[in-house]
Every structure is written in structure tokens, then in C-alpha cells.
Amino acid sequence: MQMPAKSYTTVSIRAPKSPVPLPRQKRNTILSIVTIFAVVALLVTTYGFPPTVSRALAEDNMASAHQSSLPLSVSLSPSPSPASEEGLVISLIVTVENTGTSPVSILTWNSPLDPRLSALGLLKFMSVSTGKVASGIDLKINHRVPENGLFTPEDDCIVRIEGGRSVEREVKVKEMEISLVKGEKYRVRLEGWWGTVWVGEGELRAGEGRMGDFKSEGIEVQVPEWSERVGESTFRDEELGWEIKAISRSRKGLRID
Fold first, then answer.
1. What is the average pLDDT value for the chain, to the nearest integer?
2. Does pLDDT of 180 surpass 50?
């Protein structure tokens, strides 16, 4: 008996190719990048952004993140006093307002309430036509903290502002402090850092206050072309035989828009 012929079909099965492993150097690079991002995310979550990043993010709000944590606002306005003193270029009014309900005590050193404000570099004069910021002497002053570390409300360097109240100071900018071009229009603002602010009642202990950025809105001022008028007066005393000639000079005042 003849058996029928059997047919066979050969099927080839190929195993999937295994992924090509990344070179060790590339794996290390990717791992390093992931690690850096993880560390940065942890630092930002724990401590917040660095000060330079915080200031950049808050630029549109005209204040930094630190300023929003302090109940203080700063503004500039024209001074009603004429710029008539010798060497005086501009006179402005600085207003600091306590926007909170609790009193605040401010250490005025290197702040908008510092008596030497115009020489400290906190006033930024930007030319409207060129966009350049005028250079100044940017005075740096070393101050001495009380030996016991405690300030008192009676100290000249301490200003107390009750909740909802404000204080004003007149600042006089002189030619020797900031280089302003005659006839040029500038946009001026206040920008800097609150060194120490104590909120509420209690001791004014150094190192225990709060800090934060401040930044005012700008106002436009125009430095005049000085028109100098010279006058001469003569004083005589014929009996004593002497004569004195006095020369006086006056300048045209500043125009503020």
C-alpha cells in the first residue's frame, strides 16, 4: 500500500532585535541632567527662587517678591520747593506708606528714608531719549550697630509708621552726586533693598527684622538749561575808607512734568 506524500511548510520565526544599548557616556550625561533638574526643583520648592530670579519675575508688578511680603509702598512726587540752592539740580518728595494695620519700625540706613539718599545710588535716572542710566557716586557707608544689638524708637536711624499712615522726606539731588545732562528729560524711580523692618510691637533687635525689595513707579523730570544771571552790588563806608563788591548768581529752576 502506497502512502500519500506529505507536504511540509517551513516557517521562519525571527526573534525581535534587542534595543541597542546607549553608550555609557551618553547614559551618564542624561542621568546628570535629570539629577540637576531634580536638585533645582527641590531647592526652589524648599527655599524659593534666588533673589535675582525673584526680582526678574516681579518686574511687571513694579516690586519684587520680597516687597509683597512687607506692608510698605514707596512713591516719588515733585517737590513744591524750588531748586534754588547752589549746586542743587532737583528736589523730590519720597513717600513711604504702611499699607498694613500693624505699626512698622524701619532702619533707615541705605533706604528711601536715609538722609543721604541722593548719594547712595538708589535713585535711578534713565534718559528718556537714550535709555541710559545716569551715573552717580553710589556712596557706601559703614554703620555701627549698638553694642547690645538693640535699637530704640528714639534713635535717629529708626522711623516708626503706624498702620495706614505714611511719612514724607524731601530729597535734594546735587550736581556732584549724579551726572545729569542739562536740558535732558529723565524718568526717575527708587529701587533698592529694605535692610531691616520690624513689624508690630516688640524689641528692635539687629538681625531679627524682615527684609525685602522696594521699587517705586517712575516720574519724568527735565533738567533745565541753566540760565545764569550775574548781579553786582557795592557796599561803601566813606568814613572808614573801605569798599566791598558782592557778586550774586541765580539759576533758572527745574521743570517737572
1. 76
2. yes
Domain that holds residue 35: 29-61
| pTM (2 d.p.) | 0.62
Considering the domain boundaries, does residue 247 fall inside one? no
**Residue 201, amino acid:** E
Q: What is the rounded distance in angstroms from the CA atom of residue 185 to the CA atom of residue 126?
A: 9
In this structure, the answer to whether residues 189 and 89 fall within a common structural domain is yes
> Same domain for 213 and 115?
yes
pLDDT in tens, 50-62: 443 333 334 434 4
Q: For position 28, what pLDDT does the model report?
A: 60
- Name the phi and psi angles at 211, rounded to 5: -125, 165
Q: Are residues 191 and 109 in the same domain?
A: yes
Express each pLDDT in 221-236 by its tens digit.
988 776 444 445 555 5
How confident is the model over 24-28, as a mean pLDDT?
59
> Residue 20 has which C-alpha cell?
541597542
∠ CA(103), CA(76), CA(219), 5° rounding? 150
Q: What does the H/E/C string look like for the chain?
A: CCCCCCCCCCCCCCCCCCCCCCCHHHHHHHHHHHHHHHHHHHHHHHHCCCHHHHHHHCHHHCCCHHHHCCCEEEEEEECCCCCCCCCEEEEEEEEEEECCCCCEEEECCCCCCCCCHHHCCCEEEEECCCCCECCECCCCCCCCCCCCCEECCCCCCEEEECCCCEEEEEEEEECCCECCCCCCEEEEEEEEEEEEEEECCCCEECCCCEEEEEECCCEEEECCCCCCEEEEEEEEECCCCEEEEEEEEECCCCEEC
Counting Cβ atoms within 10 Å, is residue 20 exposed (0-12), middle (13-18) or buried (19+)? exposed
